[in-house]
Amino acid sequence: MKELLFGTAGTPLSAKKRGSVEGIQRIRELGLGCMELEFVRGVRMKEGMAEKVRATAEEENVALSVHAPYYINLNSAEEEKIDASIERIYQSARIGALCGASSIVFHPAYYHKQDSEEVFERVSALLGRLASRLEDEGIDAVLRPETTGKPTQLGDLEETLMMASAIEGVMPCIDFSHLHARSSGEYNTIEEFRGVLGKVEEYLGHEGLEDMHCHVSGIEYGDKGEKNHLVLRESDYNYVDLMAAFREFGVKGLVICESPNLEEDALLLQDTFRNTEM
């Protein structure tokens, strides 16, 4: 990735129709550069539509990613639920790759009051096998476990970066708002943002900073972590300093906005980044 692109989680609200093709076209009209295909309720897109999505994205020069279904838990006590979770990620990757999506984002697992290291090892082993399967089948997609918004979920910053550094075909999705919510208000200063990006470089080298996939939005949180997304200017999230840190560290890749007003905040982030001085 040669630059930092900004876009929306799903079709922009101002699109004339709710389809992915219309969403990509609206992204280009707005002057944004990327869009995340939301497979969060299930992978329902057919191969023919995926080909249309890819053609449109290439024509409009819009980068795509995929958010896999919410119903994923690679640490379930029931093996059939683990198998179903793996299949959901696999199908997200298969259809996503046909769309031309470069990254497949998902929430990996819950701890279920188990030892965090044991959960980490179990999930890492599953992801390693799945990444190998995708490579063997020629499915060109990177798996991106996401930093999660609640302390009951696997996916703090360290865990996410450790998985990415240890498993070929896995890279992180750094949800900066989730980090903020999970810690009940931390990860919200220029120094803390520098710390996060420094950790990315520590684990993944400078190449990791040039292949970032980020989620940013306003967020409401409490003692148990994330509650819901908010419009940036109606939240306490320090997006101005985050954009300054991105510029300082030369971050490149995709920034996906999940705020309720989608494209308005995506444009706000893009404008803030572009107007930030070194």
Secondary-structure map with pairings?
Elements: E1 4-9, H1 20-30, E2 34-38, H2 47-60, E3 63-67, H3 79-99, E4 103-106, E5 109-110, H4 116-136, E6 142-145, E7 153-154, H5 157-166, E8 174-175, H6 176-182, H7 190-209, E9 212-216, E10 218-222, E11 225-230, H8 239-249, E12 253-257, H9 263-274
Parallel strand pairs: 1-2, 1-12, 2-3, 3-4, 4-6, 8-9, 9-12
Antiparallel strand pairs: 5-7, 10-11
Question: Can you walk me through this structure?
Answer:
The mean pLDDT is 97. The longest helix has 21 residues, at 79-99. This protein has an eight-stranded parallel beta sheet with strand order 6-4-3-2-1-12-9-8. It starts with a strand and ends with a helix. It has helices at residues 20-30, 47-60, 79-99, 116-136, 157-166, 176-182, 190-209, 239-249, 263-274; strands at residues 4-9, 34-38, 63-67, 103-106, 109-110, 142-145, 153-154, 174-175, 212-216, 218-222, 225-230, 253-257. The radius of gyration is 17 Å and the shape is globular. By secondary structure, it is of the alpha/beta class.
